[in-house]
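Re: the request from the purification team.
They wanted to know what the chain is likely to look like in 3D before they choose a buffer screen. I agreed to run a prediction and write the result into the notebook, where they can find it.
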Amino acid sequence: MKIRNVSFTDRDEWARMRNSLWSDSLEEHIEYIDKYFTQQEVDIVEVFIIERSNGKLGGFIELNIRNYAEGTASTQVPYIEGWYIDSDIRGKGYGKKLIENAQNWAIANGFEELASDAEIDNEISITAHKALGFEEVDRIVCFLKKLK
C-alpha cells in the first residue's frame, strides 16, 4: 500500500470512505468531491489517500487552511477536516502515515502547526491523536437554538 495525492479516478472510492466517516448521503459526498476537482469552493485544500495493491483505497486525510484553531499561535493553520482508515487495515500504522504526509505537506508550505479535532465521545480518535503527538488544548460542548 502507498500514500499519494488523491486523483479524479479515486472519486467513487473517496466518496465511499467519506460516506463511512460522515453519515451524509453518498450523492452529497460525490457532489462535494466533484467541486473539489473542479476547484469550486470547498473547505479542503489537500487530500492524501491510501492506495491498496488492488487499486482500491483504504483511507484518506483531508486538509484545510483555517484562520483560527483552538490553542494555535498561528493566524493560519492547516486543519485536519477528515481522517479515515477502513476497518480492515486499522491499527497497522496507516493512520500515522497519513498524518506524517499531512505534517510534511504543512512544513513544506511554511506552516509550524497542524490542528485537528474529534467528537468529545470519540475515545478512539482522541487516543490516536495523542499517540501521534497531538496535544489536547480544549474541550467544548456546542449548542444551537432554533429561532422562528
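For the purification team: The two ends are 52 Å apart (CA to CA).
Please add any questions underneath this entry.
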